[in-house]
Amino acid sequence: MQDSKQSNLPALLGELKQARHRQILVLCGSQQWGIAQYKAIIGDNTALALSSHAQFEEAIWPQHLHQILGQEFQFVCYDGYSGVIPNKLAAAAGTVQAGGLLVLILPELNSLSQWCDPALDKWLSEGETPSSSPFLMRLTKLITQSPVWLISEQADSYLPEHYIASTQSLDLAPQASLVSNIVEHFSHKVAAPVLLSADRGRGKSAALGLIAAHEKTKKIVICAQQRRAVQNSFKHLALELGLCEPSVQQNNLHNLTYMPPDAVLAARPNIDMLMIDEAAVIPVPILKQLLTCCPKVIFASTLVGYEGNGRGYTLRFQNHLQTHYPNYISRHLEAPIRYASDDPLENHMRLLFALDSEHDAPSQILPTAVQYQPITRVDLLNDETLLRQVFALLVLAHYQTSVNDLRQLLDSPSNRLFIAKHAQHLVGVCLMSIEGDLNEALAVQIASGARRPAGHMMAQQLCQLQGDTDFVTHAGARIVRIAIAPTAQHQGIGRALIGFAMQQLRDQVSYFGSSFGAQEKLLRFWQKLGFEPVKLGYKKDKSSGEFAVLVIHRDTPLNISAIRAQFKSQLFFDLPDLYQDLPWQLVYTLCRTLPPCEFKQSTLRQLAYVAKKTATQQQIAPLLYDVIMTQPSILSALINISKMRLILLLLQRHQPKELVSELKIESKKQLQLVFQQLLSEVYAEITITKRPN
């Protein structure tokens, strides 16, 4: 090593390796200098470098994290000049082995807050040109205050004389105990699912391989979205059974077979056990389906990681298991295996990305004592405790929250944040994004489909429904996330917080909206607040497995009646095909507030005539469809079984033989009687309420 600033680095690395710890080394200076320093550090050792610099020959700049996951290196370099992307940086840290070093190349710390980070564009919308990054300002402060190793090109450097840590031997006893416990659990006649959780580096995937080895006579499928994610499970199965470790292209080893989730659901193989690794990144509806594929199922997931945060997933999925599989067991791996406890790199990453933020809410909430207030990005920057509490609550609200969301929270100028506090405890967060307010020329291009500028998701979708540029030229507020502490839910705090946030922004925007995975209970919540559905997505969201529904608050000077009428026609058109498998309760909730039309006189005459005679199904069905299409709110007056039958038979066009148990129809005669009963109920409702002609 040529640079005297690195003179004691080899000795430090030797001490680090002896302690089985990992560390971060920040190289502050020009990009060329940082790359040269890194190359001098690694020498001829095999390493991983992440950079988009054209002259950094050995480096890669992967578009997907799975391209580097499952690998380990003594030296890993992250070139911050290529853009500080939290997900990518955290993933790079995850590939550093015990005794290894994560080298982070950055500009000098005193210039970092004003540095033009090329990644900042990812968190900006069209028309935004911020001069600074609160995320990088926080990064500067944390690096300055933390015991990181640092070498500067121009300023003072910090490398300790020695790295002193107690030597810890590798303790595999907790992992072995967990494996034995799960094997014993599945030995019972009545099997129940297992929920296995751990932070990264705890040997979770290895435990799955060891379980497969213990059950070597059983047929087992291991499931994950990427084959590379389960390589460690195959590796430990091979080690335990004395076999050659398979390549990542090999999907079978002894009794273990890899299959992605959709392949498992399509094939439904005859197996003895199903393992799902990194379950938190698989949509919960798919996880529920996987539960039905095999009586013995293990759901394993990382609680703190770069793919997303598993805390919210664990809480949500546990509720489902508690309801349907009360004998399930939950197990957790605490101590790290890949490196020793109290690992400096892990501690730095947790601090930097607030990965271990825990939400602390009082057990009892008095709604009248809750206070509501707006919070700025500067408030978050100056109050680390508040930032960590806000992020922890957002993590609980959405199990796909990743470390990228922390930077978005701090660096997006369009963000507007509002909180609910109870006795100094944070109990609610409402995150909004200001959209629209673009010029007319750009709005016309958006309406024609010629332009799709960054951000402004809701405004652009509304504009493109009917070419109405008002939704782009006027400002709107999209409610991105509403998160209420579990102990504070079902007490009206969420409704009050949204109401407070809307009141604060009412003079600044022309409309309010939100977009979320369509669920019956969730949609009802928004409808009670005055929001109406205006668009249902055409593809299921990969995160939730649900169609996204876009809702707009009815109190707006803009013309939403036209797009609501269009949504009504589109929904009825697509229900028999695209949305045929939507739960009927959700279909009813989508329909119940759709705009009504006046009945045609001919329809009323035909209804009165058919209702007074013994009519056939062929006479009744199209008439009922016409009535519901004209005034969907009639569904609200029917009893539940009638609602269900009308929706499943007429709107979604299911065949009675497909849903015998739900419809309670077992013959053609019964089907005829059902249609006559539905006609009687609908006709009675129209007659009683005397709807206008």
UniProtKB/TrEMBL annotation:
Record-listed E.C. numbers: 2.3.1.193
Catalytic activity: cytidine(34) in elongator tRNA(Met) + acetyl-CoA + ATP + H2O = N(4)-acetylcytidine(34) in elongator tRNA(Met) + ADP + phosphate + CoA + H(+)
InterPro entries found in the cross-reference section: Acyl_CoA_acyltransferase, GNAT_dom, P-loop_NTPase, TcmA/NAT10_helicase, TmcA/NAT10/Kre33, TmcA/NAT10_N, tRNA_acetyltr_TmcA
Pfam families documented for this protein: GNAT_acetyltr_2, NAT10_TcmA_helicase, TmcA_N
Locations listed in the record: Cytoplasm
Keywords attached to this entry: Acyltransferase, ATP-binding, Cytoplasm, Nucleotide-binding, RNA-binding, Transferase, tRNA processing, tRNA-binding
Single biological process term from Gene Ontology: rRNA acetylation involved in maturation of SSU-rRNA
Binding site for ATP: Q175, R338
Superkingdom of the organism of origin: Bacteria
Residues in N-acetyltransferase domain copies: 370-556
GO cellular component labels: cytoplasm
Main localization of the protein described in the UniProt heading: cytoplasm
First-tier enzyme category under EC: transferase
Primary role: Catalyzes the formation of N(4)-acetylcytidine (ac(4)C) at the wobble position of tRNA(Met), by using acetyl-CoA as an acetyl donor and ATP (or GTP).
Family membership: Belongs to the TmcA family.
Record-given protein name: tRNA(Met) cytidine acetyltransferase TmcA
Gene: tmcA
